[in-house]
Amino acid sequence: MNIESIWNDLEIFLENNAKGVLDTLNPPASGAEIDAFEQKINGTLPEAFKSYLKVHNGQTETSHRNILCEEGQLYSIKSMLKWYDATNDFNLSEKGGLINGWSALLVPFADGNGGDYLCIDISTGKIIKYWGDDLECEEIFENFSVWFQSKLTVFQQKEFGVDEGILDFWEYL
Description:
This protein has six helices and six strands, in the order αααααββββαββ. By secondary structure, the chain is of the alpha+beta class. Strands 1-2-3-4 form a four-stranded antiparallel β-sheet. Helix 1 runs parallel beside helix 6. The longest helix has 15 residues, at 3-17. The two termini are 25 Å apart. The mean pLDDT is 84.
């Protein structure tokens, strides 16, 4: 299933089950925004990730009650750049030290709470979990398409709850 189809199915689900979450999704990123972001990170995003951004450029800054996925809020390009710079400044400095597995090729795209992030490795396309407390990185998905499909699967398999229009993943984690 392609990225646009996954977004379409997610939007239909949200419209029927969690409209508040649907309302937090940003408009698409433009090709120019994506190009400028790639220049700033000195790398090329995987095509599936670009397709994802061209439908919705993450979520608005919101409380963690309106997240689309259990890993946390989806970052916009602006937020990705903010956390990319901050995490690199810390982890590649003498003060922070080089953490296990961190690389400037990792781009945070979702806030996992408490300093944890989901990142896309722009050299391999793999999805990496950055554990801020432990200063470690762990590969969790082979690529963005597989990760994004897994978000749709959570809804298709009803591995969530809805509490007053807000998605509740915690009872299933």
